[in-house]
């Protein structure tokens, strides 16, 4: 095909030479048309060659501009969703029952379970992590996470004893506390000092603060809006949101000179108070 195109070009050039010899005045304009015609002939020949080659090679599959999406297998999760909803409703109902019983029930000593500003009900200890529920004036507020119970204390790996403790601002100068300086950077202006459990036997610097697992506690109480209890390592979720709400409420009470205390009850409080376990 290329030889054929070359012969056409030679023939056209020969015609042009003859025209130039017989009519030299048209030579000034004719080269523009001839050049354009030669280009058209070359393109035409190339397109023809491609079509002939395509006829022998077979049609090519056209690639779509937009690739089709892969089929997605749709499962029926209605039963799982219904089961989860039932579990949530059941837990909410149990928490409502706990709120009523905390207000009305008494311990063996005759004191009310919900007599303090805050009540923490520990309900499970897997040997590594303790989970609990924290109530603010006998109303469920959030979940808690602590270290496990140990007969002999291991520093930063043991939960504090059950009991009643006053809560105040940490007496430590923020400039001398790395964790307080970090919190000031993250949570100013509403955070000023840590909320400190006072006079805990055998422990110092016990705070209520943000965290997700027992790796973050070092004996302190972590607080959060959600909990994952079915995994190998029990963890909290949405801790920062819960902590901010909690801190603002407790700080307002402390700033108004109201006494704030917390009662922490172990897992056996269900039996002692004749309440139904979760």
From TrEMBL:
Residues 120-251 form the DUF5675 domain. InterPro entries: DUF5675. Keywords: Coiled coil, Membrane, Transmembrane, Transmembrane helix. The chain crosses the membrane at residues 30-49. Residues 74-108 form a coiled coil. This is DUF5675 domain-containing protein. It comes from Aquiflexum balticum DSM 16537.
